[in-house]
Description:
The protein is mostly beta strands. The chain has a single domain (43-306), classed as Neuraminidase, CATH 2.120.10. Helices cover 5% and strands 47% of the residues. Strand 20 (257-261) and strand 21 (266-270) form a beta hairpin. The chain is globular, with a radius of gyration of 20 Å. Mean pLDDT is 92; it is low at 1-26.
Amino acid sequence: MRTLKLYISLPALLLLFFTACTKEDGITPNWPRKTGFPGSGRQYAAAFVINGKAYMGTGNNSSYLKDLWEYDPSTDTWTEKANFGGSARERAVGFAIGSKGYIGTGYAGSQTNDMWEYDPSNNTWLQKASMPATARNNAAAFVVGNKAYVGTGWTGSVYVKDLWEFDPGNNSWTQKTDLPGSARYQAAAFSIGGKGYLGIGYFSGQYLSDFYEYDPVADQWAQKTSFPNPRSDAASFVLNGKGVIATGRSNKYAMDVWEYDAGTNQWTAKAEFSGTGRQGAIGFSAGGRGFIGTGYDSDYKTDFFELWP
Length: 309
């Protein structure tokens, strides 16, 4: 009887071992590279998602920018759209409510508090009511239902911790309860199940890790489990009902990726970002998939990666 011998190369054996280990511990192995952003490299852009397509614009690459681009994850393609309606800027907030996108606040040579609405159906911008608070950059924003919540940031002289509710239906702003932790800028925020979440950031020489849940019905904050590694300038979004915070900066440019489960109030480490560690990247989820790209790592980036499903 002839004996059949099976030979497996060492690299293939190591790959099988790594795959088995990563499946067992729940960490997926990598992030596939997607079509790079066709605009100029940048950090501190703003983004929002409407009907499964992402829109990204503004930012900084040694000059302030105002271009806007649409990303279609189903075809992995970018299309340039009408320039942002306000002044060129960086460090603005971006969010979507219904079929409209919004970009506002930020830094355009001075702090700003204006708000602009984008309609993808006719590719136009419309100025809305300005935020009736001190102009600022590096604020954080999340959306619950048909209202957005914008807060924290840097006024050019002080860190702030106020929170404002924006209602696009009547084009109005209402001040809400301040964040209970320290004032900060470069925080991360997202919303899950009717609640907003905001945390990390930077305050007076200190990178922060505290993390809070906001209930818009009760207008109350509750402190939650702190983020495992203090930082600022991170990308954040929600994917499959869980929050994601990744990249950013503390004592170095970060590559780690963490998932937050609001039901268990726990953070779980995921596979590290496949690109370089960076600050000021954009993160969003579209079409049931998560993406991170652009940012700064001593160079202004244009690369984009998909979070492995």
